[in-house]
Design brief:
Family: Belongs to the HscB family.
Strand content: under 5%
Function: Co-chaperone involved in the maturation of iron-sulfur cluster-containing proteins. Seems to help targeting proteins to be folded toward HscA.
Organism: Shewanella loihica (strain ATCC BAA-1088 / PV-4)
CATH architecture of the largest domain: Up-down Bundle
Largest sheet: none
GO cellular component, one term: iron-sulfur cluster transfer complex
Shape: globular
Helix content: over 70%
Number of helices: 7
Structural class: mainly alpha
Subunit structure: Interacts with HscA and stimulates its ATPase activity.
Number of strands: 0
C-alpha cells in the first residue's frame, strides 16, 4: 500500500508532519470502528482494517527512517527484512570509534563532556546523512536508489548508537 496516497500526500522524504497529523486525524474520524458500532459485521471488520492501515501509514510516514524505507519499497527496494550490512569502511571505522567511546564513558574524568561530545558528533553525522538521503531518494536511477538504501542503513546504525548512548547516560545518573 502506498501510504502517501492514503494520506493524499506527495511522495517526499521531507514531509510536513503537521499536515500528516491533520490528515491522520481526518482519516481516523472517517474510518474509526466506533462509527460503525451499529453496522454489519463485515463493515465493522472493514473499519478495523482501515483503521489499522491508517495507523500503520501514520507510524511509517512520521518517522524519517521508516518513511525512507517506504519510499524505497515503492521503487522496488525492500529493506524491511534484509540482512545486508553497510560496506562503507570509513563509516564502519567511525562506528567502531563511537562504540569504543561509548564503552569508555563511565571511566572518563568528565562523563558529561564525553556524552555531550557524542551527542554532537552523532547529530552532525545524522544531519549529513539525512541531507544526502533527501537528495538521493527521489531519484529513479537504480544506482542512486542503492546509495539511498545504504544511507538508510547508516541511519539505522545511528539510531542504535543513539539508543546505546542514552542507556549509557541513564546508567550514570
Amino acid at each position: 500500500m502506498n501510504y502517501f496516497e492514503l494520506f493524499s500526500l506527495s511522495p517526499s522524504f521531507e514531509l510536513d508532519t503537521a499536515v500528516l497529523s491533520e490528515r491522520y486525524r481526518e482519516l481516523q474520524r472517517a474510518v474509526h470502528p466506533d462509527k460503525f458500532a451499529n453496522a454489519s459485521e463485515q463493515d465493522k471488520r472493514l473499519a478495523v482494517q482501515h483503521t489499522a492501515q491508517v495507523n500503520d501509514g501514520y507510524n511509517t510516514l512520521k518517522h524519517p527512517i521508516s518513511r525512507a524505507e517506504h519510499m524505497l519499497s515503492l521503487k522496488g527496494i525492500d529493506l524491511s527484512h534484509e540482512s545486508t550490512t553497510v560496506k562503507d569502511t570509513m563509516f564502519l571505522m567511525q562506528q567502531m570509534e563511537w562504540r569504543e567511546a561509548l564503552e569508555e564513558i563511565s571511566d572518563c574524568d568528565d562523563p558529561d563532556e564525553a556524552i555531550e561530545h557524542l551527542h554532537q558528533s552523532f547529530g552532525e553525522y545524522r544531519g549529513d546523512i539525512t541531507a544526502q538521503l533527501a537528495q538521493k531518494i527521489g531519484s529513479e536511477e537504480a544506482s542512486v536508489l542503492e546509495q539511498a538504501a545504504d544511507l538508510v542503513r547508516k541511519l539505522k546504525f545511528m539510531d542504535k548508537l543513539q539508543a546505546e548512548l542514552e542507556r549509557a547516560e541513564d546508567a550514570l545518573f
